[in-house]
Design brief:
4-stranded antiparallel beta sheet, alpha+beta
Length: 249
């Protein structure tokens, strides 16, 4: 009978605490993925806008050099982008789509091959036509490396990871008190389920489960179990006259 009473304590409270932590972790994971996706879209859009503005400026300033075929001036103008942190290449093509002037800093070539092949992290290019009084003279193509986007996502992801870890620790601390109350309530429920409230002895349910456990233990062996039945004389008379409480005692 003692074996029947030897049950795992706090099972419901542990399940509740684990379930809450798993639910919080899943919710934080989904939220982090959404925030990372939004951050990626925002960073890529900002980079595209910057490239578009830079391409428009180059197209307006290089129109005269392209019209007069001054390649030295065009190269010197493009070299001014060597201080740009995100611009990897700037190329000017004439009206026959032949390269007229170019500037490259090798940032695209330094991109890891694994990331270079991914469409999301591939170098970003923006083209802008070069016109003079409505006459097409060529086009400008700017290419930006997405290393800044990768770095921004890594920093943002690290920040989200630290915030999520802090949230999980806070959730664990806040649910500790509720888990303690659950363990106390579970212990009371188990006591009421397997104990007679009058005599404070194991009840019929506990006896049946103890007997089933012993039978299952010795079912595959040659062992034996014994069951002692005690029959009290005039027990029904005592119950009917003095009440069930007196009979149980």
């Amino acid at each position: 009978m003692k074996n029947a009473l030897r049950r795992r304590q706090g099972e419901l409270s542990r399940m509740l605490g684990l379930g809450q932590l798993l639910a919080a972790a899943a919710a934080l994971g989904v939220a982090c993925c959404i925030l990372l996706a939004y951050q990626f879209v925002a960073l890529r859009r900002n980079l595209t806008d910057d490239l578009t503005v830079q391409a428009a400026i180059i197209a307006d300033n290089i129109a005269a050099t392209l019209m007069f075929r001054d390649q030295d001036a065009a190269h010197e103008m493009l070299r001014s982008f060597r201080h740009s942190s995100f611009l990897a290449a700037a190329t000017v093509y004439d009206r026959h789509d032949v390269e007229f002037a170019a500037y490259r800093n090798g940032a695209v070539d330094a991109t890891p091959a694994l990331l270079h092949d991914l469409p999301l992290f591939a170098p970003l290019s923006v083209a802008r036509p070069v016109r003079y009084h409505g006459m097409a003279l060529g086009r400008v193509v700017l290419t930006a490396d997405t290393g800044g986007i990768r770095g921004g996502l890594l920093r943002y992801g690290a920040l989200l990871g630290l915030a999520s870890l802090g949230a999980l620790v806070t959730t664990s601390l806040l649910t500790r008190r509720s888990k303690a109350r659950m363990r106390h309530a579970e212990a009371q429920l188990k006591h009421l389920a397997y104990t007679d409230t009058v005599t404070d002895l194991p009840n019929r349910r506990c006896t049946y489960e103890a007997l089933e456990l012993e039978i299952a233990t010795y079912a595959g062996t040659d062992g034996r179990i014994g069951l002692l039945l005690v029959d009290l004389d005039n027990f029904k008379v005592v119950n009917d006259t003095a009440g069930h409480a007196a009979g149980d005692r």
